[in-house]
Amino acid sequence: MELSVYTIEGKDTGRKVTLDERVFGIQPHTQSVYLDIKRYLAHQRQGTHKTKERAEVARTTKKHHRQKGTGGARHGSLKSPIHRGGGTVFGPRPHDYVVRLNIKTIRLARRSALSAKAAENAITVVEDFTLEKPKTKDFLNILKNLQLADKKSLVIIGDKDNNVYLSSRNLEQSKVVIASELNTYQIMNAQNLLISESALGKIQDTLTK
Questions:
Q1: Where is this region: Disordered (predicted)?
Q2: Mean pLDDT computed over 5-32
Q3: Burial class (CB in 10 A: 0-12, 13-18, 19+), 147
Q4: Looking at the chain, which terminus has fewer C-beta neighbours within 10 angstroms, N or C?
């Protein structure tokens, strides 16, 4: 598949890039995509949730009332879970949510996600660009020129650029990521991908190894 390369003014440069069929032209493997997205979302969880159990609640251990003669049930410590303010039964404990996948499955998932976007004609290639200073208006103008301002877009650049990143930070529907940090969730969560030329080369080099 060939795509035209555009400038940040939205004009066709007259040049074309060829998308590697091994990355952008495969039959999407939905199970791998599901597993990789599940892995990503699981890793976003801190796993620090905790409730106090019976042994950890600061309450008296004095017997609540006498054993017999009250007409009620027997009770010991007020730490018991059946009392208000008592410990929690089977509450959450701190643990991690790591989901492990081998590198082949992860790369297959990313190739599948990119191929799905290519099949939807949801990929735009732009020549490498930068901004003189962080300014949201300038970044938004680039999206408007490329007809992406009203779409949920993922902008993929080749290398870290603080001016570009800071300029996009206030835009709810746009996210900037460098090619080396691209993941399946980000691809599938966007309506359109705006990929710089250098980023395209890095993506193809990484996913064809």
A1: 45-89
A2: 94
A3: exposed
A4: C
